[in-house]
Design goal:
- The structure is a single chain.
- Among the domains are: about 300 residues, P-loop containing nucleotide triphosphate hydrolases (Rossmann fold, 3-Layer(aba) Sandwich), CATH 3.40.50; about 120 residues.
- It is built from 19 helices and 16 strands.
- Strands 3, 8, 12, 13, 14, 15 and 16 form a 7-stranded mixed sheet that branches. A 6-stranded antiparallel sheet has the order 2-1-4-5-6-7, covered by helices on one side.
- Helix 8 runs antiparallel to helix 10.
- The protein starts with a strand and ends in a 25-residue tail after the last helix.
């Protein structure tokens, strides 16, 4: 159950702290008063779509926080996600929206712990279901009708459908392999000849090292210039270590310098560091001389090796030109050729084996689809019976409803095409729902459908955004009673313009807009603004300037306020909804509505627990549409 909703800087809401109760919570107010903003904020708190326009103008950050009661299922979910319980044993879902150069950054938290989109979607299905404006337009979509039917079927049906999905994927993979082999069969010999030729050429080249070409280029340079390298290495040796011409080598000069410094250090020890450096230099020069001498002696002219290197370089360059352009790419192509050869010539990839594998997968798919169809037929009968039962109290006594299941080509969701057939009047044939139902009938049908789901649904809070649109009189009274019945099993939150529906509320809230002077008035926080306090005014073009002056556009702001109503205020609000003015007749009508609602609540049956039987387990959520 939703305990409270806190909103800060969201759309036209500056600050709002709304506390809700069990049963039926109703939001009323004039068109455009901001009722949908409250629902949008609740939707956003649980991961719904939010854009930069959701952040209040003039601010850069919006925060929405929804607090729920805990139940054993939610406690288990928190443990599974490794999220600790808070001290007051509630579940707090928060969403922070930050404006960033025309975009919006979003962070979702559960009990203060950051969660991702998938986690929030999983949690949302356990907490809340929003039936938004315009969702009746989706009632005629076959894919949604299929989702609703499967959702009503419960966990066993959903499990069977998942098996169909797995089988369908396996069948498609087998078909893909078969079609690929069929496609290549006519060209198989040509492809084999081509790949065998390439494999022979590449195998003959014995490719292994991607850097082999670079190494060979360096070796060719060394072999091509071995004479020059010998001469130059000998010259370096003479310059460093031993000069045959009689001139002193570098080592001789450093040796003399070392002797002089050794004599000098007897008189001045400060020269010790210089002596150390010269000694180290002498040692390095001597070592360099020995190594360059060894290098020169190791060099030999090897025309045969040079020819081998040049021939290998030519071979590798040809390979790179055909299969490269780099040697690494040529090696990768060689490996790909081997795989293609295995695929084309492997005994496990024969047409007969692939055909049999596909047929086996197809038989398995048809079997799983047939079992799913049987479960859907049973579920359809249950839904038909229950939905008609739920529709009759909604002024649809003679209604007929049927879930038409026709065969179609197997897909990931089965081999069934689902159509909701409907006839509201006796003697009229069943026709597709959207072809025959009026707007009011569609609203009642959707409400009845949600009532059916509520019997097998573990969700704690159900939200309806103007589910009663397009109806009046006796039908509105029937919808009000149906919402009341739902509120005995679930917390219900409803936006309505119908006084009959609002009168049934256990908790009634009025939503309205006010104009405030932000320069001289701190907006009243929370959901209970007191009349006459501060400088808040109803939004109207006829209001006098605040404090006798004309505020600037930067100072005047419009905000949404939500007020919980007491009995007197409820009478006034219902009178406004019914007659548009609070005269005596409208007040009397409002009092009669409240009295009638009180009598209905007294006569209603005690709350019934959700169905809990092996044949009807808790359902998995169907896709739903929410207002963004």
């Amino acid at each position: 159950m939703l305990i409270s909703l806190q909103i800060e800087n969201f759309a036209l809401v500056d600050r709002l702290d709304l506390e809700l109760g069990a049963g039926l919570n109703v939001l009323t107010g004039e068109t455009g008063a901001g009722k949908s903003i409250i629902l949008d904020a609740l939707d956003a708190a649980l991961g719904g779509k939010a854009t930069s326009r959701a952040i209040r103008t003039g601010t850069e950050r919006a925060v929405i926080e929804a607090t729920f009661d805990l139940d054993p299922g939610l406690i288990a979910w928190l443990a599974e996600q490794q999220i600790e319980l808070v001290d007051d044993m509630v579940l707090v879902c928060s969403r922070e929206l930050t404006a960033n150069r025309g975009n919006v950054r979003s962070r979702s938290r559960v009990n203060g712990v950051l969660v991702n989109k998938q986690q929030m979607e999983s949690l949302r299905d356990r907490l809340l279901e929003i039936t938004a404006q315009g969702q009746t337009m989706q009632l005629g979509q076959p894919n949604l009708q299929l989702e609703w039917l499967d959702a009503f079927g419960g966990a066993e049906l959903v499990e069977q459908r998942e098996g169909v999905t797995d089988s369908y994927v396996a069948t498609q993979q087998a078909l893909k392999l078969l079609e690929k082999r069929r496609q290549f069969e006519q060209q198989r010999l040509q492809q084999l000849d081509l790949f065998e030729y390439q494999a022979k050429e590449l195998n003959a080249a014995t490719l292994s090292d991607p850097d082999e070409l670079n190494h060979l280029e360096q070796e060719r340079q060394r072999l091509s210039h071995s004479v020059e390298l010998q001469q130059q290495s000998y010259q370096v040796y003479q310059a460093l270590y031993q000069n045959d011409s009689g001139a002193e080598a570098c080592a001789d000069l450093l040796g003399k310098a070392e002797n002089f410094l050794s004599d000098m250090i007897r008189y001045d020890t400060q020269l010790q560091p210089i002596l150390d450096m010269v000694s180290e230099a002498l040692a390095q020069v001597q070592e360099a001389g020995r190594e360059i001498n060894a290098y020169g002696e190791s060099l030999e002219t090897d025309p045969e090796r040079l020819q081998e290197v040049e021939e290998r370089i030519i071979q590798l360059k040809q390979i790179c030109k055909k299969y490269g352009p780099t040697l690494a790419e040529a090696i990768a192509h060689s490996q790909q050729v081997q795989r293609e050869l295995e695929e084309l010539s492997g005994s496990g990839q024969s047409l007969e084996i692939l055909e049999k594998n596909y047929q086996d997968r197809l038989i398995e798919l048809n079997d799983t689809c047939a079992k799913l169809t049987q479960q859907r037929q049973v579920t359809a009968q249950e839904l038909e019976t229950l939905l008609i039962k739920e529709l009759k109290p909604l002024a649809m006594d003679k209604v007929q409803f049927k879930v038409d299941i026709t065969a179609c080509t197997p897909t990931a969701t089965g081999a069934d095409r689902i159509t909701f057939l409907f006839s509201p009047n006796p003697g009229e044939p069943l026709q597709p729902l959207t072809d025959i139902a009026s707007g009011g009938e569609m609203s009642r049908f959707l409400l009845a459908l949600k009532a059916c789901f509520s019997l097998v649904d573990s969700v704690g809070t159900m939200v309806f955004d103007e589910i009663d649109v397009g109806v009046s009189g006796r039908v509105a009274q029937a919808i009000a009673e149906k919402l009341h019945q739902l509120s005995r099993r679930h917390q219900v939150m409803c936006v309505t313009h119908q006084p009959i529906v609002a009168a049934m509320a256990d908790h009634h809230f009025r939503v309205g807009k006010e104009v405030i002077d932000s320069a001289n008035n701190s907006a009243n926080n929370g959901a209970t603004p007191k009349r006459g306090r501060g400088k808040a005014k109803r939004a109207s073009s006829e209001e006098e300037p605040i404090n006798g002056s004309t505020p600037t556009s930067d100072e005047v702001r419009t905000v949404v306020r939500v007020t919980p109503l007491d009995e007197k205020q409820r009478r006034e609000e219902l009178a406004q909804l019914a007659g548009g003015k609070s005269d005596q007749e409208a007040i009397a009508f409002a009092e009669s509505l409240l009295a009638q609602a009180a009598q209905t609540r007294l006569q209603s049956m005690p709350p019934k627990p959700p169905l809990d039987s092996p044949s009807k387990p808790t359902r998995t959520k169907a896709s739903r549409s929410t207002s963004d």
